[in-house]
Amino acid sequence: MMDSVDWTSFGLPALIETGTDGFPHAGKMTRWYREQNKQTDVSWTQKRLAHELGLTERSVYYLESHNVGLDSISLRRKLARLFTISPILFGLSCLKDETDPGQIVKRYRKMEPKHHPLRSQRGLARALSLTEKAIRDMENRNVGLDSITRRRVVAHLLSISPVTLGIITLEEILLLERRTVPTSPRIGGQEEKEAIFDLTVYENRLKTLWNRNHTCTAQDRLTQIAADMSRLATELPYVCSNDEKVVRAVLCRYHHLYAHVLRDQGRYDVAIAELEKAAILAERAKDPHLLMVTLLRIGSVLRDRGTVTEAQAKIEAARNNSAGANQRRKQAYSDYQAAIGCYARIRSLECIPQALQGVVLFDEGYVQAHLAQGNREARRAAIARLESGGKIIAETKDMLEEEFAIRITLRTYHNTKAAAMLAAGWPDEALRELSDLMDLPEEGDMSRQNAYTGYLWSQAYADLGIIDAAATPAQDALTIMKQIKSRIHMMRIAGLQGQLSQLDNKHIEVIRLGVMVNS
């Protein structure tokens, strides 16, 4: 009997149903992802999904509940792109459309032995219960090959590698996992050190994935990250005591990265759950520094969720829903307080490295600026704390990145300081801070931070009521954020658009930004 795939390692909840093919129930998985997105963007209703897909609401209902229409590969790919779902979960090997799958079928059919019944179009037609004309249309015009069921059957009949036809089987997923992680000897009572998989492979890959996420996004590598975490967790019980702490630490840092990507997608609750797992690993590894980094990252997710909730409050205010706006602000305040709790817990730990002390001050100052609530002294104290942390970070930057995988560049510092000033209600000071960035070159491929600077310019001008200067940079920033699928920043810009629409909902650039936000 074939082993079953643990779909929770791919980020799905344990209760997700599987279909008769062994893959997650495509419709219910789609609904789960839609509802996850709805937590940060309330417009993701069945009505919106119907609009995105060009279907009726009733069709979307049957799609999500009964898989109706989801035999279509093109529809599965569209859903995967909409919600950033790994194609593997849909039984697909990639999201790219095959150039000519019909010709692939034709070539493999002709590779059959001369007298084999499947060599002819007639023989293949009989095997598939189709007409010869249908086979000709399939091979010459790709008719009928949008069906995942059809491709699976054809791949099986003609011994075509499923990946060649853009699909993947459960056997291949399991085989890939086994091939990547050699089995370790597991002989009870063995005194000498057991041979384990090469941990440096995972450490190097982790660095590569972090770099990818810093420059653009690692959202397209979530499957790889989840698979690596699963392999590390599988091996953990069998490593010798000397290596156990090291493996736990690497697995903990994988959870950090996974949570960081989930946070960028706006999936805050799942991100926090991953970081809570990381905290347990750090505690069991008896690594207080790793625990501190984990708590810092939990605080980051909480504070970012707070900023997005504040953006949603602006949207509600633009809709004249003052009760909804006030509720959102209370939720944001609660998240900021919870983040402060994480920093307090770090301070309760012993021997905080100077580099991490700098980050605690830096993050704490940013959050306290949001909590200042019009208190001038609290605002100044918050900015002073952030600046103190920034000075320490500048002195320990290399150690932060090398030992703790925390990258805070000069642009990141100025961006964060400007954002804190905006939160404190000082847009003029924020503009002066952003002006200092004009002398800095753009940081190569650091798309997110470069675009974030543009958003902050827009937010500062919006807070000053200067609509013309606010709308255009926001449009440019939104274009980049959509390209890297950063939902957290997309929601911030949506909130900005709501704020601008309150100032002048007939301004052409505000209207254009609104169209971009909702498209």
Structure commentary:
The chain is an all-alpha fold and 519 residues long. It is 68% helix and 0% strand. The chain has 23 helices and no strands. The longest helix is centred in the middle third of the chain and has 31 residues, at 288-318.
Briefly summarize what is shown:
With 519 residues, the chain is mostly helical. It has helices spanning 26-38, 46-53, 57-66, 73-83, 101-110, 121-128, 132-141, 148-157, 170-180, 199-215, 222-235, 241-264, 268-284, 288-318, 322-348, 354-371, 376-404, 410-423, 427-437, 447-463, 467-483, 487-503, 508-518.
Question: What sort of overall outline do the alpha carbons produce when their principal axes are compared?
Answer: globular
Proportion of strand residues: under 5%
Which sheet architecture does the biggest sheet show? none
Number of helices: 23
Return the average pLDDT rounded to an integer.
88
Q: What is the string of helix and strand elements?
A: HHHHHHHHHHHHHHHHHHHHHHH
From the N-terminal CA to the C-terminal CA, the straight-line distance is 47 Å
Backbone structural class: mainly alpha
Low-confidence stretches: 179-196
Radius of gyration: 26 Å
Amount of helix: 55-70%
The count of β-strands is: 0
Keywords for this entry:
mainly alpha, 519 residues
